Amino acid sequence: MSEAAPSSWRMRSGGFANIVTLVVMITAISTLVGSASAHLSQNYYSKTCPKLFPSVYSVLGGPNWKVKLGRRDAKTASLSAANSGVIPPPTSTLNNLITRFQARGLSTKDMVVLSDNNKLTSLVLKSL
């Protein structure tokens, strides 16, 4: 009573299913490979987990020390003192910063610990 589908029709439907399967597999693989090779932005963790870094440093034994809260060195701000050359300007080169810190008896390691990591990274990249 019912006839079998013609062989040409069976091949086309089977071919279509194979093509759909192939497209789905390629899409899945490209998504996995793309997400695995994606790079995080430089500030990703500092924005998403701001309390992570102090915890990591304390657990791993990074540099830390207790300090008293509040400033004891100045009661007022002074534009002339800020521009006197003691504090390096934001346009300083890496060599300039190292020289300034060494003049105060601080090492390059001290400079890295006390300075903003993003600023130092950009200076190193500019000097290369």
From TrEMBL:
Q: What is this protein called?
A: peroxidase
Tell me the protein family, please: Belongs to the peroxidase family.
Q: Which residues form the Plant heme peroxidase family profile domain?
A: 55-121
Give the species. Answer: Trapa incisa
Reactions that this protein is recorded to catalyse: 2 a phenolic donor + H2O2 = 2 a phenolic radical donor + 2 H2O
UniProt entry tagged with the keyword Transmembrane: no
Residues the record lists as binding substrate: 88
The yes or no answer to whether the keyword Secreted is present is no
Q: What PROSITE patterns does this protein map onto?
A: PEROXIDASE_4
Which InterPro entries did the record assign? Answer: Haem_peroxidase, Haem_peroxidase_sf, Peroxidase_pln
Q: What keywords does the record list, in alphabetical order? A: Heme, Iron, Metal-binding, Oxidoreductase, Peroxidase
Which molecular function terms from Gene Ontology are attached? heme binding; lactoperoxidase activity; metal ion binding
Q: Which GO terms describe its biological process?
A: response to oxidative stress
Q: What is its EC number?
A: 1.11.1.7
Q: Which cofactor does it need?
A: Ca(2+); heme b
Gene3D superfamilies, per this entry?
Answer: 1.10.520.10
